[in-house]
Each structure stands twice: as C-alpha cells, then as structure tokens.
C-alpha cells in the first residue's frame, strides 16, 4: 500500500528511493535527523552502508530534493554501487590558500564548484583541493589539468576548462589630460567666419 509522503514527513521521516547495480527502484523512508547528519558528514560523493528491508548495500546520495521555502530535504535518491564498477559523480571543490594578487587589489574568482569524475567507489574522494596561492599574476588561472587528482580518479571535464581565475587587478594610474589652448580655437573660429563672409 502506497503511503502519502506528507504522512511520512509528519512522522519525522523522508520519502526516499534506492536503485542501481542490480536493484530495481524501491521506495523506502529514512529518519530525517539521521539523514541530515549523514549528508553533512559524507556529502554526495562518499560511499556509505544503506540498510534496507532487502539487505545492506554500498550506496551514494544521488539526489536530494529540498523544500523551496524551508530548504529541508523532502525526498532522497540513493544509488547502489558495486565495488568493481566505476561510477561518475560530481565531487565538490575545496578552495584553500590566498591568491597573492588579492593583496594588490585583485580577486580570485571561483569558476567551478564541483568536478565530474570517474572512479571505483572505494577511490572516490570526498572533495578535491584547489590551491589559490598559485594565482600570483604570472599564473592567471587554474585549469582542470592543473588539479592533483587522487590515484584512480579521472576527470570527465576537459583539461583546459578553467576552475579559478583572477580579476580586477589594481588599475594603472590615469594620465591627466593636457590643458586646452582656448586662444587657438578662437583664432580658428575667427578665420572660418572671415572666409564665410568673403564667400558671401
């Protein structure tokens, strides 16, 4: 019998579904507080054990639907993984360090916030570190190819894609405009007027 999702949420649960390697889509529900703590700890790129009525599986948080007003999770998709099958996930980027150009009026601009990678479940990193301290004005941007990925992890984004760049460096001092010689303008205007009178 199908249970109304509103009743599930009223009881402190979140409607969910799991599917993946050899598993048909199966509806379940999870404790809201437990899930929120889990999500804060593992994010959406770390394997954890999902205990279900069908058994215990290695799983990823594949998708989380949020309440548009409160921001609370209202539905969760879990993806069941297999240890010997590579999977693709979006791994968050963690920016560290300070770009030297920021000390002279520049700004480090973060273009990407997550990176699509492929790896075996056990090799998936929780995050990928991006060191902004290399942005010194000589190096103006960091690309996907510059990132140090863990062994066994392959980026599914072009190596030339920009991850972070610099913008708004200090402006060069402007040169003051030369003073205008008003007398020369007056002479030119008089000369033009005289020519017009002669022509008339």
Walk me through this protein's architecture.
The chain has 200 residues and is of the alpha+beta class. The chain folds into 2 domains: 5-82, Ribosomal Protein L25, Chain P; 89-167, RNA Polymerase Alpha Subunit, Chain A, domain 2, CATH 2.170.120. 18% of the residues lie in helices and 38% in strands. The chain has helices at 5-10, 32-42, 182-199; strands at residues 13-20, 23-31, 48-52, 55-66, 73-80, 87-96, 107-110, 114-119, 128-131, 141-143, 154-155, 162-167. A 5-stranded mixed beta sheet has the order 2-1-5-4-3. Strand 4 and strand 5 (73-80) form a beta hairpin. Residues 170-175 have low confidence and may be disordered.
Mean pLDDT value: 84
Into how many domains do the coordinates divide? 2
Q: What best-fitting shape do the alpha-carbon axes yield?
A: elongated
Full CATH superfamily name of the largest domain: Ribosomal protein L25, C-terminal domain
- Helical content class: 10-25%
- The CATH architecture category of the largest domain equals Beta Complex
Class derived from helix and strand content = alpha+beta
The tally of strands reads 12
* Widest sheet, order of strands: 2-1-5-4-3
Low-confidence stretches: 170-175
Give the DSSP E fraction (strand runs of 2 or more residues).
35-45%
* Multimer state: single chain
CATH T-level topology of the largest domain: RNA Polymerase Alpha Subunit, Chain A, domain 2
Radius of gyration: 30 Å
Name of the CATH class of the largest domain: Mainly Beta
């Amino acid at each position: 019998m199908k249970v109304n999702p509103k009743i599930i949420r009223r009881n402190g649960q979140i409607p969910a579904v799991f599917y993946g390697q050899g598993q048909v889509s199966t509806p379940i529900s999870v404790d809201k507080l437990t899930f929120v703590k889990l999500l804060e700890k593992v994010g959406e790129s770390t394997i954890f054990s999902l205990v279900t009525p069908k058994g215990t599986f290695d799983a990823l948080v594949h998708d989380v639907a949020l309440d548009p007003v409160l921001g609370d999770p209202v539905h969760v998709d879990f993806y069941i993984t297999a240890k010997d099958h590579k999977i693709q996930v979006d791994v968050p980027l963690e920016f560290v360090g300070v770009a030297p150009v920021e000390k002279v009026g520049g700004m480090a601009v973060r273009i990407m916030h997550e990176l699509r990678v492929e790896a075996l479940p056990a090799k998936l990193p929780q995050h990928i570190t991006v060191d902004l301290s290399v942005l010194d004005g000589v190096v103006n941007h960091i690309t996907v190819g510059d990132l140090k990925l863990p062994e066994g992890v392959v980026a599914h984004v072009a190596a030339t894609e920009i991850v972070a760049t610099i913008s708004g460096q200090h402006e060069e001092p402007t040169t003051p405009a030369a003073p205008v010689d008003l007398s020369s303008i007056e002479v030119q205007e008089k000369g033009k007027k005289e020519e017009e009178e002669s022509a008339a």
